[in-house]
Amino acid sequence: MLDHVADPVPAWRSTSLARTVGAIEAELDLAWARQLGEWDVVGGSPGETALGWLVVDSPEEHDWRTVDAALDRLTCTACGSTLTRGPATCRRCAYYHEVRFAAREVDRPDVPAGNEHALRVSFAVARARTRYGARARAGYELVLPALLAGDLPTTAQAQSARAMINKLTPEECDQVTTLAEVEEIARTR
Ligand SMILES: [Zn+2]
Questions:
Q1: 173 CA distance to ligand 1 middle (Å)
Q2: Which long-range contacts (CB under 8 A, 24 or more apart) does 84-88 make?
Q3: How far is the CA of 3 from the centre of ligand 1 (A)?
C-alpha cells in the first residue's frame, strides 16, 4: 500500500488538468472506501490487497472508479511498479491497463449520454500518458476538465479538435494547455 503514497506526482500540462485529475482521484478513493466498507475489510490489511486482486480480475462487475482505485493499490508481480504503471515492456501492466476498460461506466445524472465513457478513457490516458503518443495525450488531456464538468464534445467538435492537433508538432502537443491554444497555433499552418 506504500507504493501508492510513494508515487511521484506527475507534472500536469495545466493547473486545470491537475485539479481535474485530483478531483477524480478523490472520487476513486471514495469508491474504494465504499468497497472496503461493503466487504467489511480494513484498509491496510492483507484483506485489502486480496480484495484489490478480486476486483481487477473481474472488472466487469465493478464501476470503473473502483477498478482504477484497486489498480492504484496493487503492486505488479512482474515489474514491481504500481499495477499498470510499469514500463511499456511489462506485459502484465499492459494486460491490466487493457482489462480496466471492461469496468462498468454509468453516466452521472444530467450529463449527455457517453460522458462517463469519455471521462474514464481520458482519465486513464492522462494517468498512463507514457503509453500514448503526444497527439493522443493532447486530445484526451485537453478535454478532460470539460468532461468532468459534464460536457461532451459533439462528433464534429471532436473531429475538428483532432484535425487541429494533427497540425501541431509532437513537442507542441505536449506544451499546449488549452484547445484555444491549439486553435491559435493550427490557424497559422
Ligand atoms: Zn508491471
A1: 27
A2: 84/128, 85/7, 85/128, 88/130, 88/131
A3: 13
